[in-house]
Amino acid sequence: MSRITGTQKTAAEKAAPAPAERGEAVPEARRRVERLGLGGPDGSRRRGALLRRLLALGDWTALLGALCIVTAATSSTDIGTLFWAVLFSPAWILVVKLHGLYDNDHRRIRHSTLDELPSLVSASVLGTLLLDGLLAVSPAGPLSPASAIGVGVGTLFASFVLRGVLRFLWHRLTGQALGVVIGPARAVDMVARRVSTHPETRLALVGYLFSEGDEAASELPHLGSIADISKLARELPIERVVVTEQEMSEVAAERLIEECKAEGLALTFLPQHYGLLGPGIELNRLAELPVLDFRFSDPPRSTVAMKRAMDVVVSALVLTLFSPVLLAVAIWILLDDGGPVFFRQRRAGKEGVLFTMVKFRTMVTDAEQRLPELVDLQQLDQPAFKIPDDPRITRSGRWLRRTSIDELPQLLNVLRGQMSLVGPRPEEESVVALYDERQRGRLAVKPGLTGPMQVYGRSDLTFEERLAMERDYLDNLSLLTDLAILLRTPRAMIRGEGAY
Predict the structure, then answer these.
(1) Considering only CA atoms, which of 326, 494, 358 is closest in space to residue 426?
(2) What is the Cα–Cα distance from 28 to 475, expressed in whole angstroms?
(3) Measured between alpha carbons, how far is 25 from 121 in angstroms, rounded to an integer?
């Protein structure tokens, strides 16, 4: 491969998300990282060590804060107990370390504080028990039950918040890592789109490597062949390689792994049959053989019952707390064009059963009659459509749709049991009629007020990308997944990306 010219580098930089798109000064952050000697593979390792220390400091600060608050708020915990608890506090950090909560940021292609929540809960429980056990053999004696619960819950909450804040500030300071993709154009485009809809990857793809003669990718520039990886690593400060090549031989894969290891590059492989592998798949070993265990079962009835209980409690609480906001929105719609406040439409629910969905009206009153002027449903390439800059949207509706506040009345559908807080979005009856048997799989559960589509791309996703995300959600239904999507939804509402 010839040396990458300035023109090629510019093309590579254009392939990465622009600063305005991400809301951050990406080039400035990269220059800052290079000035501090934290760029490239060697700098990546130093950044990883610094971030691990920051996270440990955050956890220790959370524990000290919880101990101080409990000491001040309860009469059973005195200064002597506080002294011994602080003395034993490194044991808490050891428990967190044994849970692997300091080692994943630079090891994985994507990682967020939400991913750590189950492990943080476990570490907080075990950390509290260990700390209380150490205090029991000290002159101070053990904590009272109320104090122990206060320390555990307080540290869990504070640690979760501090970790999120520290990662946010750290990523603002260091910007995104640079990466390249190895594979054919179609797979490269798919990976590039997935990375762009998952900002927690903190990865800016600058190009791809593959043999000459293959059709060009539309998302990234071609930078050479696979054999050029070492040379490219010396010319550009890339830190991660993503391999999508499905027909690479074992010898070629071993050679690539050795080259990436020698250059200090992180390596991510996209496995064969990746569309079948969801979070519910377990990687185990049979002697030296890695094996994948699939789990085939419907969600337990207890999970379904708890999901329904969460639907009722959360929707009732949100409707009560946000009733002044809902009233203000209703008045705004009336003042805007004087039409009805609510829009009602028949949508397909679980197993295709129709129900009447309600939302704030964001379009002119004759929007449905004008739809054939804009879209011919029979000519659609896929059974879904969104119209950017839809002329039927009202002035108030544009802001309501961007923030998704127009969807809040659907909490009434959730209370009635027609919808759930999390699930695939409900589609119109005419669109569902175009589904094939595979696409009807998304009707296996109740539609949701929010879902994987809402937090990862929204209307910018193609229907097949939506279907893949929703199938992954259906195959791995759990309360933790629902909770993670709910916690990510406010950010998606504030950013408003992909909302038409």
Answers:
(1) 358
(2) 41
(3) 35
21-25 own/partner pairs: CB under 8 Å, 24+ apart: 22/176, 22/199, 23/495, 24/172, 24/175, 25/175
**CA neighbours closer than 13 Å in the CB half-sphere of residue 453:** 28
Q: Among 364, 482, 478, which residue's Cα sits nearest to residue 414?
A: 482
Structure tokens at 394: 């009202």
Question: Minimal CA–CA distance to 44: which of 475, 467, 36, 194?
Answer: 36
Instruction: Say how many Å lie between the first and final Cα of the chain, rounded.
Output: 43
Helix H or strand E segment including 306: helix 301-321
Find tokens 């127009």 and name the residue: 406
Asked if pLDDT for residue 15 goes beyond 50, the answer is no
**Does the pLDDT value for residue 21 go beyond 50?**
no
Would you give the distance in Å from CA 105 to the centre of its chain? 14
CB atoms within 10 A of CB 47: 21
150 conformational bin, left if phi > 0, alpha if psi -120 to 50, beta if neither? alpha
Can you give the pLDDT at residue 22? 35
**β-bridge partners, 428:** 347
**Nearest alpha-carbon partner for 171 in 47, 15, 16, 34:** 47
Rounded to a whole number, what is the largest CA-CA distance in the chain? 81
Query: Residue 143 carries which side chain, given as an amino acid letter?
Result: L
Alpha-carbon distances of 409 from 220, 325, 403, rounded to whole Å? 41, 11, 14
Place of tokens 């049959």: 273
Closest CA to 236 of 188, 190, 194, 204: 204
List all residues 6 or more positions away from 111 whose beta carbon is below 8 Å from its beta carbon.
104, 105, 200
CB 279 within 8 A of CB 457: no
Other beta carbons within 10 Å of 16: 24
Q: What percent of the chain has pLDDT over 70?
A: 83
Q: Which of 456, 451, 301, 423 is nearest to 351 (CA)?
A: 423
Count of CB atoms situated within 10 Å of the CB of 335? 9
- Mapping DSSP to helix (H, G, I), strand (E, B) and coil, where does residue 417 land? coil
- Closest among 60, 33, 13 to 170, alpha carbons compared: 33
* 124, burial (CB in 10 Å: exposed 0-12, middle 13-18, buried 19+): buried
The upper half-sphere exposure of residue 488, i.e. CA atoms within 13 Å in the direction of its Cβ, equals 24
Are 52 and 107 spatial neighbours (Cβ–Cβ below 8 Å)? no
Q: Enter the tokens of residue 76.
A: 């059973």
Highest mean pLDDT of the ranges 9-13, 275-279, 395-399: 395-399
Return the C-alpha torsion angle 475, 478, 483, 488, nearest 10. -10
Range 420-433 average pLDDT: 86
Residues in the chain: 500
Secondary element (H or E) of residue 8: helix 6-15
Helix (H) / strand (E) containing 337: helix 323-337
Any idea what the Cα angle at residue 197 is, between residues 420 and 438, rounded to 5°?
A: 55
